[in-house]
Amino acid sequence: MRNRVRELRTDAGLTQSDLGASLGVSRQTINSIEAGRHLPSLPLALRMARLFHAGVHEIFELEEEET
Amino acid sequence: MMGSTSRNGRRGLSAAVLLVGGGAVAIAAWVGGHPGVAAVVIGAYVVLAAIAFVWAGGRGDVAAIMRSGADERQRAIDLRATAAAGAVTAAFTVGGAVVSIARTGGDPGPYGVICVVFGVSYGVALAVLRRRI
To answer: Are residues B119 and B85 in the same domain?
Structure first.
């Protein structure tokens, strides 16, 4: 699973702590999501999509071998 | 706002659990006629509780889990760690039961009871969770 969380966060001028606070999760969890180690739950992905004014499919994308 | 989510939960939770558990062990030792052991136990648990209280005030993943204020990833870490500890404990207990049977010629001792408790509780958990999830 690829994601654009880091790109969208930096474009919005947010730190990992800022984004975590906005979404109700820790800075470490944002870091883990950006690094692709943690797959967020659907509710968290939807909250992230709402925050970035984007669709979930615009933030998260399946890798070729996952499709 | 920044960093506020890393301090969710109750900081004194782990310390309280340690104090209650240590108190129970100390009372047991006292009732068992070992007041000296009871004093040492309660002293040790007070120190551990103080360490837990300080640790739980931090920003890290373990601190959040200790406060019971973990987010979804931290809860997943806690769940996997609990499962790993359970698997190791189960393997150790089965090994202990086998060794005890070999030594006594058939009696698994307390290991047998723990194996039964583990097996039954796992079965009940499977039955309940498959309906809930």
So the answer is: yes
